[in-house]
Amino acid sequence: MPIDLNTLIEHDASDECPVCRAQNLVDLALLPAVAAWEMRSELPHLSIALIGAAGLLSALLEEGVPRDDVEATLSRLLDDYEQQIAENEVMGGPPQGTA
Ligand SMILES: [Zn+2]
Predict the structure, then answer these.
(1) What is the span of the domain harbouring residue 35?
(2) 6 Cβ contact partners less than 8 Å away, ≥ 6 residues apart
């Protein structure tokens, strides 16, 4: 069965929204771990973040998802993140250690 990327990124209205839960995991666990790996491995800042993101996305390609679909979906997600970043700047910086 082909993977429908749209279903993976559609927020639902629940408190247990899978998209929000995934974003929280990335923000609270994955990004800090990646930053630590970069520092510990003496790799350039954000190198694993960028290459890791591409590597994770390659799993979609291996599942047979067309690259155009991956790129279009990624673009939508980045739009969301850009909006979030802009909102955080208006609020006076990123949230501090909220869980
Ligand atoms: Zn959500």
Answers:
(1) 20-86
(2) 73
Whether 68 is in a domain gets the answer: yes
Q: 22 C-alpha to center of ligand 1: Å? A: 9
Q: Identify whether 7 is part of a domain.
A: no
CA of 32 to the centre of ligand 1 (A): 21
Give the distance (Å) from ligand 1 centre to CA of residue 21.
7
Whether 19 contacts 11, CB under 8 Å: yes
Q: What is the mean pLDDT of residues 31-36?
A: 96
Å from CA of 93 to ligand 1 middle: 21
Mean pLDDT for 8-14 is 92
**pLDDT, tens digit, 9 for 90 and up, residues 34-86:** 999 999 999 999 999 999 999 999 999 999 999 999 999 999 999 999 998 99
Cα 17 to middle of ligand 1, angstroms: 5
- Say what the pTM is: 0.80
In a domain, 49, yes or no: yes
Q: How many domains does the chain have?
A: 1
Would residue 1 count as lying in a domain?
Answer: no
Query: Cα–Cα–Cα angle for 41, 78, 47, nearest 5°?
Result: 15
